[in-house]
Design a protein that fits this description.
By secondary structure, this protein is mainly alpha-helical. The chain contains 21 helices and two strands.
Length: 480
């Protein structure tokens, strides 16, 4: 029964992506990109047929609530959408193979931002628009997954996040998924439209303004590096602002929009994010030869790393070898922390990082006062043992899977430094950061087909979170 419900939901999402492909199809026809238009038409047709068959064939299935469906829905949903998102690229470049297209689709849906078609798609504007649109949808889905399914499973202690969205007790977590999406989508769309207007008013071309607005709100580094390098100082400030909006809790954005109040005091993760951006920019200023006039670019670099956006301004991307190593370490530290839990960023997220710090301090206090009572507080909530265990499970499984991914890539012939950087960038969903963190990396287009398969799995795990992936190996899930 749960499999039938799963197929119905997958069909619904594939139909949504098929409808979305109409936008780049019409744009390709408008700008005269006939080959791209043909690939979008064929892809949309295939998605419509597949999604329609699943939707119509299983639409009468009964709503069920079982752990298997809750776990497999994000895993299979992201995978199915990645196939559909990469299909136009496969049809446009069939000689490159399916796994390269699947990797690119997974990069879009998970908001990783990297592309396996470097040097081939930058001049095809309809493809660039599609990558930004699908990443934007992927970001919205990530937020909805977090506030519904992942929170219901307390992945990484998510239930310590006191969301201002109140839907009451639902019979099914999938109703909450739909209600969350309906609540967040309007403010998500409004922020994107506002971003486009502000980028355009500050001198950015209309097409680049669309890409920047879609990418910054979803924290997906799908914007060409040259676009970020050519931004003026005012456009850089706008990009910083919208990256901060993108890495913040979207349920709090919804609350602010409804109450017309900043609610800054209640949003602990936003305060932590601003603190880390300030500290990161100050350290970048100390580690580089940047002038005071370039301080805005350093703030942009810190915000880009924390938001797992990954695309760096020229002051960071063009560093010498001596400066590159300490800067790369700093950027990777910011990236692994990530943004707020109810955002589309990757990494561990601010709440978990703060809890790990508090748990470490509690252990030190326990050594000094072994008979004392030590609790871990997060805001007004007291973390229970199951919450703390969930955080440790997330951290341990995150590090373990990233290490396994790096070793697998190294065994297949990639230099270990490159393998570690690629595994890190895939797990933290910060694909473009790899070129800044590892200047010796030859680019994603230089990888083999099997490398794309490994990185696709790592991106999937980074998006749905490692404990959810590990749960499929639990015997208790398959009993009964």
């Amino acid at each position: 029964m749960w499999k039938s419900r799963l197929f119905y939901l997958l069909g619904s999402w594939i139909l949504m992506l098929a409808a979305l492909q109409v936008i780049p199809l019409l744009f390709a026809l408008f700008v005269g990109e006939d080959a791209a238009a043909g690939s979008f038409f064929a892809s949309a047709t295939l998605a419509l047929l597949l999604g329609g068959a699943l939707f119509l064939g299983f639409r009468s299935t009964e709503r069920v609530r079982v752990p298997r469906l809750t776990i497999f829905l994000p895993l299979t949903g992201v995978t199915a959408l990645a196939v559909m998102a990469g299909l136009p690229l496969f049809l446009l470049f069939p000689e490159s193979g399916f796994l390269r297209a699947f990797y690119d689709g997974m990069s879009q849906i998970t908001t990783n931002g990297s592309t396996a078609y470097e040097g081939s798609i930058e001049g095809i504007r309809s493809i660039m628009l599609w990558r930004a649109l699908s990443s934007w949808i992927g970001g919205l889905m990530a937020i909805s997954f977090t506030l519904s399914l992942l929170m219901a499973m307390n992945s990484g202690g998510l239930q310590l996040h006191r969301s201002p969205l109140h839907f009451g007790d639902r019979e099914s977590g999938y109703q909450r998924l739909r209600a969350t999406t309906r609540a967040v989508a309007p403010i998500y769309l409004f922020a994107t439209m506002l971003g486009f207007i502000l980028f355009w008013l500050t001198g950015t071309g209309r097409f680049d303004a669309v890409l920047l607005a879609l990418a910054s709100v979803s924290t997906a580094g799908v914007v060409p590096e040259a676009t970020v390098h050519n931004l003026g100082i005012f456009s850089q400030v706008i990009l910083i602002i919208f990256l901060i909006i993108g890495l913040s809790n979207w349920d709090f954005h919804h609350w602010r929009a409804r109450t017309f109040s900043p609610r800054f005091k209640e949003d602990r993760e936003l305060r932590l994010s601003l603190l880390w951006i300030g500290i990161g920019a100050a350290l970048l200023f100390a580690l580089t030869d940047a002038t005071v006039l370039e301080l805005v670019s350093l703030v942009l670099a810190a915000a880009s790393a924390l938001a797992t956006f990954g695309v760096m301004p020229p002051e960071i991307a063009e560093l010498g070898i001596r400066e590159a190593l300490p800067v790369a370490i700093l950027l990777m530290i910011l990236t692994v922390m990530g943004g707020a839990v109810a955002s589309a960023t990757g990494g561990l997220r601010q709440m978990r990082v703060w809890l790990i710090f508090k748990m470490g301090r509690a252990e030190v206090d326990r050594l000094a006062h072994p008979h004392g009572v030590h609790t871990v507080q997060y805001g007004n909530a007291t973390a229970e043992k199951r919450d703390l265990d969930a955080v440790w499970l997330l951290l341990g499984s995150f590090v373990l899977i990233m290490a396994i991914g790096a070793m697998a890539l190294a065994v297949l012939g990639i230099h270990f430094q490159d393998a570690l950087t690629l595994s890190f960038a895939a797990m933290t969903l910060s694909g473009p950061l790899a070129t800044s963190a590892d200047p010796s990396f030859a680019g994603y287009s230089s990888l083999a087909q099997v490398d794309y398969a490994i990185l696709s799995v790592l991106m999937l795990i980074g998006r749905v979170e490692a404990p959810i992936f590990m749960a499929i190996f639990a015997k208790a899930l398959w009993r009964g």
